[in-house]
Amino acid sequence: MQLTTTITWRSVLLAAALSVTSAGAFAQDKAGSAKADTAVLKASGVIKDAATGKPLAGVNVSIPTFSAAITDDKGRFTIKVPDYNVTLFVSAEGVQTRQVPLRGKKEIAVRLYDESFESYYAPAVSAVSRKAAVSMVAPVTTIDPEGAWARNQETTDSYLQGLAGGLTAIRKSGTPGIGASLFMRGISSLYTTNKPLIVVDGVIYDNKEFNSSLISGHSSNPLLMLDIQDIDNITVIKDGSSTYGTKGGNGVIVITTATARQKATRIDVGVYAGVNFAPKQLPVMNAAQYRPYLADMLQSKGLTQQQILAQPYMTDDPANPDYARYHYNTNWQDKVLQGGASSNAYLKVSGGDNIATYALSMNYARNEGVIKNTDFSRLGTRFNAELNLSKKLVARSGLSFSYAEQNLQNTGIAPKVNPVYAALVKSPFMAQNDVSDKGDVSPNYADTDTLGYSNPVSIVEKLMAINKTYRFFGWLSFDYQLNSAFSISTRVGLTNDKVRENFFVPSKGIVHDTLQTAIANNRSGTQVKRLLSVYNDTRVAYKKTFSRIHFLEAQAGVRFQQQKFEQDYILGFNSATDELINVGYGAATLRQVGGDLSKNRWLNTYINGDYSFDNRVFINAGVTIDGSSRFGENADGGMRLNGVKYAVLPYAGVAWLLSSEQFMKQLPWVSMLKLRAGYTLAGNDDLGDYTARQYYTSQNLYGMQGLVRANIANPRLQWEVNRKMNLGVDMGFFDDRLRVSADVYQNTTDRMLVRESTPGGTGIDYFYSNSGKMRTRGGELAVNARVINSQQLKWDLGFSLAAYRNTVVKLPQGDIVTPFAGGEILTREGKAANLFYGYKTNGVYATDADAAGDSTINSGGALAAFGGGDMRFVNINGDKRIDKNDRQVIGNPNPDFTGSITTVLNWKRFTLNALFTFSKGNDVYNYTRSQLESGAGYNNQLLSMLNRWRVQGQVTHIPKATWGDPLGNARFSDRWIEDGSYFRLRNISLAYNVKIKTGFLQYMTVYVSANNVFTITRYLGYDPEFSATESPLGQGVDIGLQPQIKSAQAGIRLGL
Amino acid sequence: MVVTCLLAAGCTRKWEEHNAPGDAIYVHNNLYQQIAANASLSRFAGFLKQTGYADTISLSRTFTVWAPTDEALKNLDASVVNNAASLKKFVAHHIAAFSFRTSDVQKAAVRVGLMDGKYGSFAVDSFEDAAIVAANGVAANGIFHTISAAAASRGNCWDYVDSLKAGGLAMAAYLRDNQYRAQDLTNAEQIGVNPDTGEPIYKPGTDSVWRNKFTNEVYDLKREDSVYTVFVLANTAFDAERVRFSPFYATGTTDSTTNLARWNTVKDLVVPGAYAPEQLPDTIVSKYGVRIGVKKSAVTSWHKTSNGYVYVVNEMPVTLEQKFPDFIVQGENYNMARVMPSASIFTRTLVDSFAGGTFKDVFVYRHGINQFYVGYRLNNVYTTTYKVYWRVINNTGLLAHPYVQRLAMGRIDNTATFPYTNIVPYNYNEVYLGEYKVTNYGNGVLSMYLVSANITPSGSNHNQNALLLDYLRLVPAR
């Protein structure tokens, strides 16, 4: 019902827009034709180089389908024009393309910038066509990585950080190749994906990690299999006009890989080597500081003086056999974190003839992580070809194969096996190796210590965690030009992906795990995940210009995708020795075998139309009709066809190039002014393959295997509907020397997928329904300018800023509180979707008297009284009792704004590039610090714990250390919420283009670059940037992943 | 570049600020440095250095120091100051391992183990007898309190008993001198191997040690980590008790009778816990369950020791019922049987429909032996006449009603005490069997046997030769 009204309203809007423009067109026509009848009109002008002011000769000036001219030695040209409202298209080798409106003038002067200066007239690639960005209606950002030579260790997702306003890329961790969590314009959904769709060469790139990794804190990044150096163009479409229907709800990133640019054979070779630097260590206690802390802890545990003195590590008598073993001062962070090396090699051969062109590339990359013995290496190859089978039939193909291998470590919340965490909490007086009573050091690594901690060195040296990924991504397309207006094309894509993981956790040196029926001393596991995806996109396209000023382009097509996924895993336990690392050696009774099989199909029909009037008014509209195997049979929305529900999602947008209007000639310094407006509908089909259907899962009960019901089917399940409104303006001043773009938007997610809890009697905790609603409003600003423009020295400066505010509009069952890493995340109507929900603190009680009368409900459910040295939590309801009613919002992980600064400095043959990124106002839950300042156990602590409350009357902000933390001083509170704002020099690179005599060698460029050079932040952790999960619930939680790393690289690139 | 440096510095500072808030109390100085820096503790700091304890309290463990002020140490006995060993002992009495703050004192005072092996009494405002002037000084590795007087160490209860012995108290002498020799191979010197058994041969005298009977069997009054209250009877009272108890220990010699009577006197006169004179209870219950009266008026002198109190008293009233209680022997606690182990002996848990609750008894059935028995051994059986009772509950339908069994005292073939008795069904009362007189203490052991019917077992008479016993009770004449 709602959809129908929207469509109606939409039609009205569309009709109104059309009538306005056509009325304008009519008026223009009258004026133009009157003049054209009388005489041949001519316009002339001069074209100069913006940097030198010298005239440019040989520049093409044209009016498509009407006339063309070329500049002479003095840069002058004269061209036949139909009227003086026309737009001239200016282009030449080595300079940027421009469109210059005459705006009623007969004589114009144009200053052109060099090719490297970004321009509104550069080509952008939409989902269905390719045209100058200036004619685009949708909010898009176009990025040309130019080979990304300086940043070739990055994956596309992390590369995009700071480069496309509105696209938030948060790097997941410092693990090489792990990529970034992508959010398009804030948050769009609680439980479905927030990632934009990625389309590579017209084929959907499967960019979802199907099922989790066996290795804690790790996730496979499919974009790792796509070498950034192969990418020619990245266009980010931020609204719902992408034609991808229920897959386009989060926008689309359209990636085009490199093809041959010229027919002559070209060989590009790049070789790079670099170093990674271990992060700055967290200040934890040394042995002399830790042992008194431990003594206090044991005392608070209730041990007597004698019992504590009897502990082996408490002896101070050198004659005691335990003395040597427990009198080390080990810096465990040194033992697990270290610098590493990186290397990269790239070869591309391209060329061809009139019939066929090709581009073949091969890449090799290796990058060592900062956790000892972790690395990633990749070998990839890509072959793109274009074959002119006949004048009208063109065949194209793209084949790529990549193999990546990662030696990993468990990270995140895995205290027994996370080496960084183990290094932070391990007592510093322990030794890395076995030590005899006399103090002789054995080459064997020490076993789990008496306090129950793993040996971090055993973890990094002996624990095996390997991920091997293979991906074949290939496509083949045929384009047939029926006549000058119509063409037919079809594209078939195939993705075959295999992820193989193996791990082995040895018995010695690592804390044993507890299974239901046994203690697991050593553990092994293997997993294979396969994805087979078939894709087809077939369309009819129409393109025609009527009466020179009416340009119409339309496409109608069908897309089909089928994904088949299989996961199989085996976990083994207790093999006879640590040398038997395969799952097969594990005890048969403990072996766990499991897996997952799933399959989905998606059918998308789209009709898209673009109309432009005299290059001044642009209209884009279309509709998509999507069917999916994931939708319920009785989905509420959409349209029923043959008993199947289809999502009908229309969209429309209009852009007005004001700067081409006559009245704008009053402002000659405004070289470009374009207003854009769009109202688009897209959807999100990431509902889970079988959520709408009833399915069963296997379960083991006392050795009996059986099937149990796994969910409550919801046959009314449907796609989420993303309504996106966008208003934008693009401006250029002084021949586009200063360019400003701004957008404001409102995205509303209707029928948002929500988990609704069910009565306990059902035996199932929750079911999914489309009963939520969410809204995100925001804006983006981008300013680019050429600050210095001389022949020798050019300085471009860019600044971009993006902000969004998210609000949950509707939830069916009130607040949702999601536990995560010991904290809680609140989703509440009227507030942002992912707020930290906990207790506020107000210092530490200095004395028992201060705390008199205040109490809390402890973990056992009993009332416990606070005393001196306990945290003073803020009591909301004034009942002198701290309980869950006193929880409040203590932080918001969404930033106030994010942005970037880019700068390019060209001096003679040197180019200095820098990218600064920043985030302001995002709160972070520092889980790691909550463990390192918990004061509750044997964990080694941060130096700040030296200031813990110890005696009555002591005024401090760190509470006392008590065994087990009975009063919950370390509970989830604003103690652990920090400002995660940062300003970072993300990348800086210097390139020198060596002067060579042309001949065999075409060019030679030498590079030096550095990543994460410095980060300004108040955050008390390794680094403020991390993303533990791709879900919005869980952003801004530092669970102890591999920290971001500084790296530097030098390389050389040759062209033959 | 300059900017980068500044920025880097900014990043480091955030930790410094976090780790050291403005009003931080944490000091990097260790205890010795803190004490040495305190002008009013210079004398004690000097002692610490002199005795080597300065190094100890600089270790990375935690300690508590009760540091006497210079004023307090001004008049310290020169014999302590000038004798390295006693100075060390003196200083050690002011240092404890681990942190003790006044907030840790939950009761009136806590006993804290000190470096000299003694325990000190730590109260919110005092340590031993010295007042705390400044409490809860903080150092990196512990806590120090300033006290207004030196804390002198005391002897323990056992030391004081020794001094009472020297003062001529017979009971003190008895406690100290009641020794026996026990094997202890700690310092044994092996001089050969027995060729027959392969056992080692030790040099005579090295393989055994003297042990004190009281400290080994009752309470070790030498222990510093426990506290006791010791009552020492004045000589008159001590001898009066001997006279009173001697009849119950009829033996061949006067010495052994005296010894037994005295042991029975002293074994009940120490209780755990330190009772100050004002806290003395009216009665104490000894380790052996004997209830003894405490008369405050009878206390002639008392002494506080490092591990409690020692009282010299003229009287500790105790009844003979307390000293010589009834013997109750539970049927299921047999320690002998005609055949053992035997599948025919059952321990039953039954609901006591008479007195309520549950009880256990022994049930012997289908043993297939004529005059089967289960036996009981009693220790420390004093010489007197006992009235003997049993309680037997015949509540099973397996048995004939009635059937017979008997109790044999001393020897299994003693049919005089007592004859076969009919066991009446469902009798929850004690049944009086008769009197039995013990005339000689000997080793204090008395054996008793529960004997089944004198019939040759057959397939059909299982119901006649069973045994049942809930308990036996021997009531001494006193």
Give the tags.
heterodimer; A: 1056 residues; mainly beta; Immunoglobulin-like; Maltoporin, Chain A; five-stranded mixed sheet; 9 helices; 56 strands; 47% strand; disordered N terminus; B: 478 residues; alpha+beta; FAS1 domain; Jelly Rolls
Written account of the structure:
The complex is a heterodimer of chains A (1056) and B (478). Chain A is mainly beta and 1056 residues long. Chain A has 3 domains: 75 residues, Immunoglobulin-like; 701 residues, Maltoporin, Chain A; 83 residues, no CATH class. Chain A is 8% helix and 47% strand. Chain A is built from 9 helices and 56 strands. Chain A has a 22-stranded antiparallel beta barrel. In chain A, a hairpin with a 4-residue loop joins strand 8 and strand 9. Chain A starts with a helix and ends with a strand. The N terminus of chain A is likely disordered. Chain B is α+β, with helices and mostly antiparallel strands. In chain B, strands 2-1-7-6-5 form a 5-stranded mixed sheet. The longest helix of chain B is centred in the N-terminal third of the chain and has 18 residues. Chain B has 13 helices and 29 strands. Chain B is elongated and about 95 Å long. Chain B has 3 domains: 124 residues, FAS1 domain (Roll), CATH 2.30.180.10; 119 residues, FAS1 domain, CATH 2.30.180; 150 residues, Jelly Rolls. Chain A: InterPro entries: Beta-barrel_TonB, Beta-barrel_TonB_sf, CarboxyPept-like_regulatory, Plug_dom, Plug_dom_sf, TonB-dep_OMP_SusC/RagA, TonB-dep_rcpt-like. Chain A: This is SusC/RagA family TonB-linked outer membrane protein.
